[in-house]
Amino acid sequence: MRESINISLPSKPEYVSIARLTASFVANQMGFDIESIEDIKLAVGEACNNAILHSGTDNTYNLEFVKELDNLIIEVVDFGNGFNIEKYRKPDAEELQENGLGLFIIKSLMDEVQIESNEGTGTKIKMSKIVE
Predict the structure, then answer these.
(1) Could you report the per-residue pLDDT of 53-73, keeping only the tens digit for each?
(2) How far apart are alpha carbons 11 and 8 in whole angstroms?
(3) Does the pLDDT at position 112 exceed 60?
(4) Per-residue pLDDT reduced to its tens digit, 32-44
(5) pLDDT of residue 80
(6) How far apart are CA 53 and CA 1, in angstroms?
(7) Which 8-state DSSP code applies to residue 101?
(8) What are the Cα distances from residue 13, in Å, to 39, 45, 57?
């Protein structure tokens, strides 16, 4: 059975906790263990922080949590400037920069991550994790 929860949040840091709590609740209901729940919360927080950073504080961003059998699918969509995904490079551990770690963290914690972004139209991060 497929169930989904949709949330629209202001692009302000103080609302990220709502997204993280929702992720925690959904993941717990699906039977994820504590470590996986913490990974999911961190990935959602990073995706939300990216949405806030790149969409400006006068906007909103959307989250969708989809429970599909043993797979949790989470989409975070902002309506900011977007970026050229082909220019994104995995961070170099010896030359860490201020930007770019969020996507690296998300990809490290989730089973599958897809990013759609075009300059001027915003960004969608779709991530999923399977209950083990």
Answers:
(1) 887 667 899 999 999 999 999
(2) 9
(3) yes
(4) 999 999 999 999 9
(5) 84
(6) 35
(7) H
(8) 19, 10, 9
CATH of 2-130, one of 3.90.228.20, 3.50.50.60, 3.30.565.10, 3.20.20.220: 3.30.565.10
Given a contact cutoff of 8 angstroms between Cβ atoms, the answer to whether 122 and 53 are in contact is no
Tokens of 56: 């400006």
Q: How far apart are CA 110 and CA 130, in angstroms?
A: 9
For residues 44 and 93, what is the distance between their CA atoms, to the nearest angstrom? Answer: 23
Q: What are the extents of the domains in the chain?
A: 2-130
Nearest to 65 by CA among 82, 53, 48, 80: 48
Q: Is the predicted pLDDT of residue 19 greater than 80, yes or no? A: yes
